[in-house]
Design goal:
This protein is α+β, with helices and mostly antiparallel strands. It has a single domain, classed as 4-Layer Sandwich (Deoxyribonuclease I, Chain A), CATH 3.60.10. The protein is 22% helix and 27% strand. The protein has a 6-stranded mixed beta sheet. A 6-stranded mixed beta sheet has the order 5-6-7-8-12-9. The chain has a two-stranded antiparallel sheet with strand order 10-11. Strand 3 and strand 4 form a beta hairpin. Helix 3 packs parallel to helix 4. The chain is globular, with a radius of gyration of 17 Å. The model has no long low-confidence stretch (mean pLDDT 97). The chain binds one DNA strand through loops.
DNA sequence: ATGGCCGGCGCAGCCGGA
């Protein structure tokens, strides 16, 4: 089973790229971030035609997440627990049944947090605390569980082509990186780092020819529960989509799990 | 040359992103 995450930076602007990639990559489950659409505006039909069920948690103008699945949803949960006053749509979770049992997938769009020293950065850190609490709850279920999405965290210097450019950025602050390490310390495995120590990037800014210079960062991550990590067959980053016409600034990251019993 | 973009909203130019 192939499970992917992609920050598509606007689903309406990206619908042709999304359907092309779904056809080519044939993922079973996809978490999308920054759909920048309300639920009613989401172009579900074009995706359903390709054989996917669609669940959205949208918002007007910005943010917004969705999950696509070839298998029917047993359950869908919208919103990250821990703050009923948080109106930003940044988390969606779904459960599907497979021969081996169930697979639970949480798709997240972690706050950017810039500029540092503002309420935006404080919100990012509070959101990460809530994510840690929720992950601990889910890990207690001892299921194959994937926490995937745009984390807006550069975990290590090796995760940036030019780390010195990010020292004053919320994505690379010691507090952001420490919160990401605490999350992993609960027992989650960073899938990309399970297969390589080399540089892997998932985002290249639109500005300054960043993609042409490979001036990228790794901020889209697939974290796996022990029960999911035990089933890991392959990991990939579909970098070529960044070279498409009208690209998202992020590219898909995916894992393949053995779920046939 | 030390800067260079993009989507949404809504119809100009600002907000938010990373």
């Amino acid at each position: 089973m192939k499970i992917a995450t992609w920050n598509i930076n606007g689903v309406k602007a990206r619908i042709d790229s999304l359907t092309a990639w779904l056809t080519e990559a044939a993922p079973d489950i996809v978490c999308l971030q920054e759909i920048k659409s309300v639920d009613e505006g989401f172009p579900a039909e074009a995706i359903e035609r390709l054989g996917y069920n669609v669940a959205t948690h949208g918002q007007k103008g910005f943010n917004g997440v969705a999950i696509l699945s070839r298998l029917p949803f047993d359950e869908v949960i919208r919103g990250l627990p821990g703050d009923p006053d948080d109106g930003q749509s940044r988390y969606i979770e779904a459960v599907v049944s497979v021969p081996a049992g169930v697979v639970r997938v949480g798709g997240l769009y972690l706050p950017n947090g810039n500029p540092i020293g503002t309420e935006k950065f404080a919100y990012k850190l509070r959101w990460m605390e809530r994510l840690e609490a929720h992950a601990a709850d889910r890990l207690a279920l001892e299921e194959p569980f994937l926490l995937i999405g745009d984390y807006n965290v550069i975990p290590e210097p090796a995760d940036a082509r030019r780390p010195e450019n990010w020292v004053n950025d919320a994505l690379y602050q010691p507090e952001s990186r420490a919160a990401f390490r605490r999350l992993k310390s609960l027992g989650l495995v960073d899938a990309v780092r399970a297969v390589t120590d080399g540089p892997v990037f998932t985002f290249w800014d639109y500005q300054a020819g960043a993609f042409q210079k490979n001036d990228g960062i790794r901020i889209d991550h697939c974290l796996l529960s022990p029960q999911a990590a035990d089933r890991l067959l392959a990991v990939g980053v579909d970098k070529h989509t960044r070279g498409w016409e009208k690209p998202s600034d992020h590219v898909p990251v995916w894992v393949e799990l053995k779920v046939d019993g």
